[in-house]
Amino acid sequence: MAKPMKQCNHAGCRQLVPYDVRYCDKHQHKANAETYHKRMYGEHEGRYQQFYKSSAWRKLSRRFLESNPVCIQCYQDGVIRKADVVDHVIEIKDDWSHRLDESNLQPLCYRHHNQKTKQARETRSKEASAKNGGKS
Asked: CA–CA separation, 47 vs 39, rounded Å?
């Protein structure tokens, strides 16, 4: 059975694409470029993206992983797994002043980092909707 089709999300484009695809081939690159630009230079997100590319963060995270090579969550579960990511215990979106504080860092594997990030994002979203009076 064929997938249902819809129009490309680019304004004015009438090209049909599968329902689970957002843009036609002609407009996909433009959408990716806009997303990248918003993420890197946007009002809120750009600050964090620029920080993670800074030499101070790269040096600190590399040094931290060298001295803490095991995922702390896996170790607490009785498993020894290589840490892939240096994670901020208190996210920098919540407290910018602790961005280079080693006591605010923990080594995590990708699995545990993604779980923690997802949970923090959901918590932040709930708090924002509560501030807005339940309006999303």
From this structure: 9
